[in-house]
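Deviation from plan, reported transparently: calcium ion complex.
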Amino acid sequence: MKKQAIAILALVLVMVLGTSIAYAITIAIDGDRDPFWDGSGSQTPGSIGDPDEGGINNNVDIQTFQWTNDQTNFYFLIDVHATAPLMPVLAPIDICLDTDSNSSTTIPATNGIDRNRCSYSTGVDGIDTIIEAYRLSNGSLLVDVYDATTDPKTWLGAGTLGYNPSASTPVVEISVPVTLLGFGSGICPNSIPIVVYYDGGDTNPDDNLPDSGSVNISCGSPTAVSLQSVTAQQQGNWTILPLLGVVVVALLATGIALVRRQRA
Ligand SMILES: [Ca+2]
Ligand SMILES: [Ca+2]
Ligand SMILES: [Ca+2]
Ligand SMILES: [Ca+2]
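Because the crystal trials were delayed, the predicted structure below was used instead.
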């Protein structure tokens, strides 16, 4: 193969790889911080910080809360004021949302535990949905999504929890289908009041983000993130198949060009 043809093929490969990286964004829910959490592919995750509280052990002390979404899922990240987060067995992380911005759809007064976790003591009202992430002693990682306006809460469905203290950049990652939050099909609020609760197991006090009031997160445009998925395998399919197709076309084109030159 001539040098020119090799150079053209290399250029095509670089262009294809660059295009794939720009659009095939995957946040793997594996407890390891993906670089996409710093922004990539036309999406910039929301981010809010929380102080290092002296009375809270740093491995259960929220430092950063981040979020982003695509058409299918909401993605959340929690980092702590320590090298790695700790999730003791059955000690949950709760993400409490006011999905309808309506204070009358809220946690009943009879459910004191969730009212307390969702920071009701400091004036937050209107929480109607709770995303609860926790792990079992057998190693299972679970995310339950609840309608919190009933007592007991009504289970709506499951999300995905990523927790791995041995990861190279350990964080807690959570994904939840937007449909479980009542979003999707054109319903995507600009503002969703939210409170995060991190239970440290036997460590008291627990951390709330914020300490009072609520953080507004945006569901944003349903196309804020393109082609995200929660598994590396799907990214491989999306990235490699089109790449193989373009490489085959490029090789054929190069071959035809060489044959034509030899004949000429
Ligand atoms: Ca990850
Ligand atoms: Ca602390
Ligand atoms: Ca904190
Ligand atoms: Ca509400």
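The chain has two domains: 3-20+234-263, 27-230. We consider this an acceptable substitute for the interim report.
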